[in-house]
Design goal:
- The chain has 15 helices and 8 strands.
- The protein is α/β, with parallel strands linked by helices and 344 residues long.
- It folds into 2 domains: 174 residues, 3-Layer(aba) Sandwich (Rossmann fold), CATH 3.40.50.720; 157 residues, N-(1-d-carboxylethyl)-l-norvaline Dehydrogenase, domain 2.
- It has an 8-stranded mixed beta sheet, with helices on both faces.
- It starts with 5 loop residues before the first strand and ends in a 19-residue tail after the last helix.
């Protein structure tokens, strides 16, 4: 497939940004959305005003509410909220039949019920399909506006990996490749939890030093749990690890940082979720999934534990931060030597 057909499933900010990035004069891209009214508005206005206001869609992007039409492409990018991914994958399995497209999961999360990564959720429904994953420090608004960015694609199939990477050639997005499918997804999922913690710190007005210390310890915690769950150490020092962690913890445009900031300012979680409407902060459902995984693997995760207690209403933001600062004194150890242990 020298010029494969491509569809994007999920007409939120990230899915739309991907469609814009992948658009070419000679490549029509179906952009599937579940809400026919939202899709109709995009067709009429040529803009996704709900999620990416002000960004004009290229003429080759074809918004559609017809999943069967979008499913016929050779490569499908899935930018669907984690809680809906299983249902959509089930529909795709039925619609595709003998057609076996390459599926690229762009969703960041860990399923709560079974503890599955997003590629595993898809594989349960479509076991014979080639699955790739895409992650990295990618704020949708910047991607859509052509601001330079980078990410990493993971896949077990070398041909599919190269084919997917080539789609981004000549764009403002530099795509790297990796065989560590688990590590890429774990970095992308776990960083959302730590972004909530960083937002809480900022909401409480604790300052730059506190946030830097928190993010550094978050990297240690991410790496410790990520390795226990099957990721490679070097992945967490890359784009889908520390790269994604930095942008979500430091950017006020990060949804998860916004949730934490508003919690730190004293707003209730229920009020925050209600006001976000159709916007999804994946760190909220991922927190419980990550804590359950940490318990299964006997991994110490103090930051995840405090965010869990906060989201469950068991602690106030100030008490959660106080608990982290009041932990037993110890040598820096793992965090101090993290980069020294990375392969050269």
């Amino acid at each position: 497939m020298s010029n494969p057909t491509v569809s994007v499933l999920g007409a939120g900010g990230w899915g739309t940004a991907l469609a814009i990035l992948l658009a070419r004069p000679d490549r029509k891209i179906p952009l599937w959305g579940h809400d026919p009214i939202h899709v109709e508005n995009m067709v009429r206005e040529g803009i996704n005003t709900k999620y990416l206001p002000g960004v004009v869609l290229p003429f080759t992007i074809r918004p559609t509410a017809d999943l069967s039409a979008a499913a016929q492409s050779e490569i499908l990018f899935l930018a669907i909220p984690s809680r809906y991914l299983d249902a959509i994958a089930s529909q795709l399995a039925e619609l595709c039949g003998d057609h076996r497209p390459i599926l690229v999961s762009c969703t960041k999360g860990i399923e709560q019920e079974r503890g599955l990564l997003m590629s595993e959720v898809i594989a349960k429904q479509m076991p014979s399909t080639t699955i790739a994953v895409l992650s990295g420090p990618n704020l949708a608004g910047e991607i859509a506006r052509g601001i330079p960015a980078a990410g990493v694609i993971g896949c077990d199939d070398a041909q599919a990996l190269t084919m997917t990477q080539t789609l981004f050639s000549g764009t403002s997005f530099r795509a790297y490749t990796s065989g560590d499918i688990r590590g890429i997804q774990l970095g992308g999922a776990l960083k959302n939890i730590f972004a909530i913690a960083a937002g809480v710190s900022d909401g409480l007005g604790l300052g730059e030093n506190a946030r830097a210390g928190l993010v550094t310890r978050s990297l240690t915690e991410m790496t410790r749990l990520g390795i226990a769950m099957g990721g490679s150490r070097e992945t967490f020092g890359g784009l889908s690890g520390i790269g994604d962690l930095m942008v979500t913890c430091f950017s006020p445009r990060s949804r998860n940082h916004q949730v934490g900031f508003r919690l730190g300012q004293g707003e209730s979680l229920e009020s925050i979720i209600t006001s976000m409407s159709s916007m999804v902060a994946e760190g909220i459902p991922t927190t419980l999934s990550a804590q359950a995984a940490a318990r299964r693997h006997s991994v110490e995760t103090p930051i995840i534990d405090e965010v869990t207690a906060l989201l469950q209403g068991l602690k106030t933001p100030a008490d959660a931060m106080k608990s982290l600062m009041g932990r037993d004194l110890r040598a820096e150890g793992e965090a101090q030597n993290f980069f020294l242990r990375l392969p050269r």
